[in-house]
User: What shape does this take?
Amino acid sequence: MRKGIPGRVKLKRETEPRRHQLVQQRLLDMILNGELAPGDQLLPERDIAKALGVSRPSVRQAISSLASLGLVQVTPRGSYVTAPDLGTVLMPVLVAMVRNGHTYWQFLEFRMLLEVEAARLAAGRRTVEDLHRLEYWLRSLEEAVRQQQSALEPDFQFHLALAAASHNDLLHQMIVALLNVVRHEAYAPLLEAVYAPPGELAAWVDRSREIVAAIRDQNTELAARAMRSYLERVAEITLGHFAARQQPPMTSR
Assistant: This one.
């Protein structure tokens, strides 16, 4: 069923670039308040443009912006409201944090805020299944190091399993989005730096064991401290990587 703007709602006179933002906000409001539900098809661009008193390019740009946020899917048959996961919505925001002048150190601080609290919550809320999942990825990490294989995937999966064990969906999805940004190829040199120092791979395994042990014992404060220690080491190595190359952490701090 096609849905759009009920009635004719004139937007105040604005420049064309500003108008597409107003159209976007109007459609976003309708999605948030439930007037437009997942699966609903938007009215054709010409009908939305007529209802709001704007041009079709303004409507097209607004729909495109919503599509980039994962809130609308544009198909040859029309545009449909989607039900995106939070990570999909957060990804552009996190990428923009780096691109718009936020330093890598600030990025690490943000990750620390999220993952330290996730470890604390996981220790208090973990189920037997959560613990089994963490232990599985810890064993996978140990095996990768023993076989001198890439530890990247088991390490990421370990952190995702820990985030899920927090049983806070918002926190979980934010960490998923954050780690997906870190996994981007642009960060490959940083990831290599984290694992490169002699003996560092074995040290990462030891730090991960400490986190799992605290979560197993349901020691919330110890789990938080272990995760903080883990991420402080990540910060130390990656910032040292920038210093060695006389580069600022992504942008000037």
